[in-house]
Amino acid sequence: MTFSIRTITRVLLRRSRGIRIKPVRWVALLAELDRRGERRHEAGAFLLGSRSGDLREVQDVVFYDDLDPEAYSSGVCILHAPAFAALWAMCRARGLTVVGDVHTHPSGASQSEADRTNPMVAREGHIAIIVPNFATGRPAAARLGVFEYRGDHAWTDHSGTGARRFLHNDFWSKFL
Predict the structure, then answer these.
(1) In this predicted model, what pLDDT tens digit does every residue of 106-153 receive, in sequence order?
(2) Which of 28, 58, 141, 172 is close enough to 163 for a disulfide, judged by CB 3.0 to 4.6 Å?
(3) Domain extents for the chain?
């Protein structure tokens, strides 16, 4: 019993920062990114939810091409101003905020120069997640690119083994 209480306490303490998304929503998000990207171009989505301190809770997802039908026409994710106006109106109507975004890359999950210098939401604390291989399969957290925007084009990299401590999309996320 002691081991179980110790494990649960450790999980709860470590989850006071980062981004939490229920496993079923995460799996559905990856499948939809795979479908929308057709395994040949990038696809992406905004993660809507709430923020309490350093923890963001994903409650809804809005795909880029639902906001801008031409979002993927160049092969990479590009949104135009009217898409952001629609996004902010959607957030106001639902009482949510953008807590992060996720998009795919063809191979690895490193942050490109375009990603680094053009954040989808240039607000401190925004989380950008990059999924490799156009989101085919279910990549482990350690294979994802997880970046936290710090302002002025500066980012904190939570990728690799750090992703497991920052992106909460596993069994425990169902209960927290």
Answers:
(1) 999 999 999 999 999 999 999 999 999 999 988 988 999 999 999 999
(2) 141
(3) 2-174
